[in-house]
């Protein structure tokens, strides 16, 4: 994993408000107050400066940089002191910003609630000003800031992960922060099921892998919860939410692109595990088919174990990463196959079903016979009920001497013709190109 670097820019004065100060000794500059469950303390000390204003700015700068370093270990401080020229009359710096930088991208993360408790202004033996400032953050603001920084680092890692996985299909970042980019481009599942969060998140990865063939998701911690970020939420948000609801195991709270997931009952995990084990797998496809020949004898021959099924299965497995189950069942039409698998859905692990057909035509012209083949398929999504009809891939006609043509010769020529219809080198409109167009539409 690539390491990101954080650069601190300090700014943004806020109005003065009442702050309930904890008690501490007058020698706080020598003995820093110990952190408590309610407060975190830091002392900022300036370098010797010619003017008091410069020394105050330097002390604030040192204090804020110390807080930033305590929150993130990957902080280097921008030493541009011109950002302090406005002064600190209110003695309260409510927020400042960490700028996350990776390659050419930068983003800003706010840190909250930094308060000044005490300030000492001294002069050294050379008459130079040295300022010491005692500051604190409430534990709630400290945790809020820590999570904001951690989430930005997490989102930058998610961005790089999606960029590597998706290549040319990746939507480049234009937002000011990685967190904003993730919220705009991902569906985010946050598991709020206490000690079970990690187990639920891990099982949900299996659930998503079965639910979607092409989804890219990133497992992480976000906003303090075990989470999964699914890229391109307009395509997956509603489907994911509906699919999780159908398990009957969860309650949901939606906030923008974030879905907070909590268990609905005590045995939610065991029920969800059973559901995942039994759900249809989008990476599996069952393939059926029929092959018909118009033969010299005038008869039409149909064979379920056809060459088009073999070609389709090879492409689905090798080119699209599908696990293929070739069925020995015979159906005359796509509708027959669809009706059967719908009624016997428990018998199939696949989410998708393909019905491949090839048709060999034999025609006589002059003293020659011509054989050509066409291949097509229908695809059925058992989960959604959607159907896709492919275009037809056809071979060029193949000739044979008419006096020598037999039914078996036409069948032999048919196999060659089907191979040509499926061959990218011999046919630009081959079955692989047609499969690509349809498979790209699958969830």
Outline of the structure:
32% of the residues lie in helices and 33% in strands. It is an alpha+beta fold.
Structure, described:
The protein has 10 helices and 19 strands. It is α+β, with helices and mostly antiparallel strands. The strands form 3 sheets. Strands 12, 13, 14, 15, 16, 17, 18 and 19 form an 8-stranded mixed beta sheet that branches. A hairpin with a 5-residue loop joins strand 12 and strand 13. Helix 2 packs across helix 3 and helix 4 runs parallel beside helix 6. The longest helix has 28 residues. It starts with a strand and ends with a helix.
Number of helices: 10
C-alpha geometry: elongated
Helix content: 25-40%
Quantity of strands, as a count: 19
* Main β sheet profile: 8 strands, mixed
Helix-and-strand structural type: alpha+beta
Distance between the termini: 29 Å
SSE string, helices as H and strands as E: EEHEEEEHHEHEEHEEHEEHEHEEEEEHH
What low-confidence regions span 5 or more consecutive residues with pLDDT below 50?
A: 1-19, 76-93
Tell me the fraction of residues in β-strands, as a range.
25-35%
The rounded Rg comes to 34 Å
Average residue pLDDT? 78
Assembly form of the protein = single chain
């Amino acid at each position: 994993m690539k390491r990101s670097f954080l650069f601190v820019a300090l700014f943004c004065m806020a109005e003065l408000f009442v702050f309930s100060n904890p008690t501490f000794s007058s020698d706080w500059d020598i003995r820093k107050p110990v952190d408590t469950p309610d407060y975190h303390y830091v002392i900022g000390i300036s370098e010797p400066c010619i003017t008091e204003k410069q020394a105050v700015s330097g002390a604030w700068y040192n204090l804020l940089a110390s807080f930033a370093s305590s929150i993130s270990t990957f902080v280097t401080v921008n030493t541009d002191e011109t950002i302090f020229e406005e002064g600190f009359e209110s003695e309260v710096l409510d927020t400042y910003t960490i700028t996350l930088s990776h390659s050419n991208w930068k983003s800003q993360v706010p840190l909250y609630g930094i308060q000044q408790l005490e300030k000492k202004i001294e002069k050294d033996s050379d008459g130079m000003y040295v300022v010491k400032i005692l500051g604190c953050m409430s534990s709630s603001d400290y945790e809020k800031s820590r999570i904001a920084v951690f989430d930005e680092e997490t989102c930058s890692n998610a961005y790089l992960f999606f960029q590597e996985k998706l290549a040319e299909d990746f939507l480049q970042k234009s937002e000011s922060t990685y967190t904003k980019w993730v919220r705009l481009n991902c569906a985010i599942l946050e598991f709020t099921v206490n000690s079970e969060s990690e187990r639920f998140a891990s099982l949900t990865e299996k659930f998503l892998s079965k639910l979607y063939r092409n989804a890219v998701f990133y497992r992480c911690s976000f906003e303090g919860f075990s989470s999964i970020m699914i890229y391109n939420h307009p395509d997956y948000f509603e489907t994911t939410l509906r699919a999780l609801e159908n398990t009957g195991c969860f309650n949901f709270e939606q906030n923008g692109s974030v879905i907070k997931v909590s268990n609905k009952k005590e045995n939610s995990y065991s029920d969800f595990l059973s559901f995942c084990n039994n759900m249809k797998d989008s990476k599996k496809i069952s393939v059926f088919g029929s092959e018909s020949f118009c033969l010299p004898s005038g008869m039409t021959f149909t064979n379920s174990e056809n060459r088009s099924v073999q070609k389709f299965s090879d492409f689905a497995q090798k080119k699209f990463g599908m696990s293929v189950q070739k069925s020995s069942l015979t159906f005359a039409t796509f509708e027959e196959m669809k009706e059967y698998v719908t009624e016997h859905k428990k018998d199939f692990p696949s989410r998708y079903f393909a019905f491949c057909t090839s048709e060999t035509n034999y025609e006589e012209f002059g003293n020659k016979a011509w054989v050509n083949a066409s291949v097509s398929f229908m695809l059925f999504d058992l989960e959604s009920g959607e159907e896709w009809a492919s275009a037809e891939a056809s071979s060029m006609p193949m000739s044979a001497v008419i006096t020598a043509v037999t039914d078996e010769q036409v069948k032999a020529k048919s196999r060659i013709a089907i191979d040509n219809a499926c061959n990218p080198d011999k046919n630009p409109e081959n079955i692989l190109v047609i499969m690509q167009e349809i498979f790209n539409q699958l969830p």
